[in-house]
Each structure stands twice: as structure tokens, then as C-alpha cells.
Amino acid sequence: MGESGAPGNRRSAVNGVLELMFLGQYEHTIDTKGRMTIPVKFRELLVDGAFVTVGFDNNLMVLTADIFNSLYERINAMSITNENARSLRRLMFSQAVQVEVDKAGRILLPQYLRDRINLESQATVIGVGGYFEIWNPETWAPQSEALFNGETNAQRYETLDLSL
């Protein structure tokens, strides 16, 4: 259960407010009961609990209660007559489960979620700002490699406004 990654929070140079974000990448084990230790730097952000649901890339997403509630409100505001909105509701909420960090710093990942992404005894946990993702390490490896392809990134991100 090594932890090697960036800090889970940082102080903003602009306004002096502590910005709490999920940052870094970690490798963790999953015990036979499906419990996974949460990176220490992430635990303080989960004091009010969290929600785990399927992600969009054969992974799991772990969202704080506030972020999950905000997501719920946005999806719930979509028309039920829209087929894509109904599909998104089913994807996000039929697979969601509320979890709490236990005294040992672990969350319980239900079997159906572990089965969904073929998660067994090892997990890669990556911070993505407002939430974090849990990946099967074998699935994460090619995804991670693709992230560092300069030519692909130039094309992929050229339409985004990343001005500083």
C-alpha cells in the first residue's frame, strides 16, 4: 500500500483560501471483504461520507456528498423525455452506493462494483480534482500511457480554453 503522489490540498496564492482537491496517484490493496484503504490525503475530504458509482471509462468514481448532491440536482433537472438523460440517470444512480471511511481509513467497495471493473486485489487510485477514481491497474496502464502522448494531447485539447 504505497502512497506516492502530490498533496491532497494546497493553499491558493490568489485568495489565501485552502483549496481541497483530490490530487496524485496511489496504489492500494483490496482485502478479501472488498475494503480498500483511502489515501491519507483524501480522507479529510470525506468526513461527511462519499458516494461510489461507475465511471465513464471502466472505472469507479468516488465523489464527496456535496459533489454527488450537486450532480444529482443537475441530472434530475434534465427532462425525463430525453433518452440520453434517462440513460445517464440509470448509469449514475443505479450503480451508486453511499460509503463511509472506517476508523482504519477504508471504504467498502461492494462486489457488484468490483465486478463491473474487474477489480480484484489491487487498485490504482487517481485524484482528478473534485473527485477521485479507482481503476483496475491493468486497465489504468494504457489509459495512463495515452495521457502522455504529446501529439494526441495537442489535438485533443486544442479547443479547450486553457489560458492562464
Helical proportion, percent range: 25-40%
Average pLDDT value?
Answer: 87
Name given to the CATH homologous superfamily? Transcriptional regulator MraZ domain
Strand sequence of the main sheet, in spatial order? 1-4-10-11-7-6-8
The number of distinct helices, counting runs of at least 4 residues, comes to 6
Give the uncertain stretches in residue-range form.
Answer: 1-18
CATH class: Alpha Beta
Task: Break the fold down into its secondary structure elements and pairings.
Blueprint: E1 3-4, E2 9-11, E3 18-20, E4 25-29, E5 35-37, H1 40-43, E6 50-54, E7 60-64, H2 65-76, H3 83-94, E8 97-99, E9 106-108, H4 111-116, E10 122-127, E11 131-135, H5 137-147, H6 150-157
Antiparallel strand pairs: 1-4, 2-3, 4-10, 5-9, 6-7, 6-8, 7-11, 10-11
Describe this structure in words.
By secondary structure, the chain is an alpha+beta fold. The protein has one domain: 3-Layer(aba) Sandwich (Chemotaxis protein chec), CATH 3.40.1550.20. It contains 6 helices and 11 strands. It has a 7-stranded antiparallel sheet with strand order 1-4-10-11-7-6-8. The chain has a two-stranded antiparallel ribbon with strand order 2-3. The relative contact order is 0.19.
Brief sketch in words of this structure:
This protein has 164 residues and is an alpha+beta fold. The chain has a single domain (3-157), classed as Transcriptional regulator MraZ domain (Chemotaxis protein chec, 3-Layer(aba) Sandwich).
Quick tags:
two-stranded antiparallel sheet; globular; 32% helix; 6 helices; single chain; Chemotaxis protein chec; 7-stranded antiparallel sheet; 164 residues; alpha+beta
